[in-house]
């Protein structure tokens, strides 16, 4: 099938969104989330201050936030790429609106993406102004994954290659939907682990702190209405609260694994062996990266790869749900008009 207008731009935006997600993870894992204490600039400049005059100005404006060039650089590179992605998404929205008269041209999805990217910009600002408040940091991560997934879905729709398959069982559709929800929840839990610095709360497997069930404070670990500030760099929770967060993420991983293996089996039975294999590989790699994070004490490269694995698993689930959903819509070009429907109904009336 021929690709549709906007496909190349959507594909480029999807790839850029993946880069932005990974840069966000790298920024967070290198503790550079407050590398620039203001937004959207850095100490009042469009880049990290370097000259003596710029450094003096930065010290005067932000006396409690000394310039750390490597952290500021990580933060600003992430912002530059995110800004470029926002421009591309707005171009997709404008193009979709101008091409709305074309058959099979998605309009709602590109416009939704424009709204999401504006929300992401707000969360990016609040991440800095609220000093890495875990609720905002986690929401920002989910917004990034949402942006990536919606762009991937738009690319799939415009590709002309991936088409929905109506001849699948309702059971398979339900399993795919449940799997997608569980993956989203697990990514949110991963963000909560990261934003509360709980990744090293358990440094052994399969036990935690040498026990199957160590002391864990779930009430404080998931106290979502905790007060804001003054600064969450390094985390504010005690060890038992962080242990609770880490344990919950592990339990979530077990649920996701069981659910997705069932889904892969059902996909294979339905003849969708390619999707089943893709899901199994993505799940296996993510499990291996998660285990490696614990056993090797969160090496930076593995931690970033674990974020990439989560994104890959989310994209896989997005593709699966797109393929197995019922093809309830037809092309506008071939869809019967209202008057054609009326004519058919009137013509059939006397024969009933």
Automatic annotation (TrEMBL):
A GO BP entry: heme A biosynthetic process
Pathway of action: Porphyrin-containing compound metabolism
Residue stretches spanning the membrane: 80-97, 109-126, 132-154, 175-193, 247-265, 277-298, 304-324
Membrane topology designation: Multi-pass membrane protein
Presence of keyword Repressor: no
Cellular-component GO terms for this entry: membrane
Alphabetical keyword list: Cell membrane, Disulfide bond, Heme biosynthesis, Iron, Membrane, Metal-binding, Oxidoreductase, Transmembrane, Transmembrane helix
Pfam families on file: COX15-CtaA
Main subcellular location of this protein, as a coarse class: membrane
Superkingdom: Bacteria
Any one GO molecular-function label of the UniProt entry: metal ion binding
Subcellular location: Membrane
The UniProt record lists the keyword Phosphoprotein: no
Protein name, per record: Cytochrome c oxidase assembly protein subunit 15
Organism: Pseudomonas abietaniphila
Taxonomic placement: Bacteria, Pseudomonadati, Pseudomonadota, Gammaproteobacteria, Pseudomonadales
């Amino acid at each position: 099938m021929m690709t549709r207008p906007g496909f190349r731009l959507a594909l480029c935006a999807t790839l850029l969104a993946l880069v932005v997600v990974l840069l966000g993870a790298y920024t967070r894992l290198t503790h550079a989330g407050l590398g620039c204490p203001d937004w959207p600039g850095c100490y009042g400049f469009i880049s990290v201050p370097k000259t003596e005059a710029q450094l003096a100005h930065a010290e005067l404006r932000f006396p409690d936030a000394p310039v750390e060039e490597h952290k500021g650089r990580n933060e600003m590179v992430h912002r530059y790429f995110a800004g470029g992605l926002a421009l591309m998404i707005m171009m997709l929205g404008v193009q979709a609106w101008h091409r709305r008269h074309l058959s099979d041209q998605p309009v709602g999805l590109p416009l939704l993406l424009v709204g999401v990217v504006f929300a992401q910009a707000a969360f990016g600002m609040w991440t800095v102004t609220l000093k890495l408040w875990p609720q905002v940091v986690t929401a920002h991560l989910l917004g990034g994954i949402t942006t990536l997934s919606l762009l991937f879905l738009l690319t799939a729709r415009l590709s002309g290659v991936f088409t929905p398959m109506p001849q699948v069982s309702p059971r398979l559709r339900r399993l795919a939907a449940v799997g997608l929800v569980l993956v989203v929840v697990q990514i949110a839990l991963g963000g909560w682990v990261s934003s509360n610095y709980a990744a090293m709360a358990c440094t052994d497997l399969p036990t935690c702190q040498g026990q199957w069930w160590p002391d864990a404070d779930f009430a404080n670990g998931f106290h979502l209405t905790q007060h804001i500030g003054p600064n969450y760099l390094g985390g504010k929770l005690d060890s038992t609260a962080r242990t609770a967060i880490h344990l919950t993420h592990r339990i979530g991983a077990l649920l996701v694994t069981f659910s997705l293996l069932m889904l892969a089996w059902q996909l294979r039975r339905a003849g969708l062996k390619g999707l089943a294999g893709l899901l199994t590989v993505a799940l296996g790699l993510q499990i291996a990266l998660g285990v490696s994070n614990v056993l090797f004490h969160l090496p930076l490269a593995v931690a970033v790869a674990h974020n990439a694995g989560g994104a890959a698993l989310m994209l896989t689930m997005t593709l699966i749900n797109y393929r197995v959903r019922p093809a309830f819509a037809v092309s506008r070009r071939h869809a019967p008009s209202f008057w054609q429907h009326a004519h058919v109904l009137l013509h059939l009336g006397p024969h009933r």
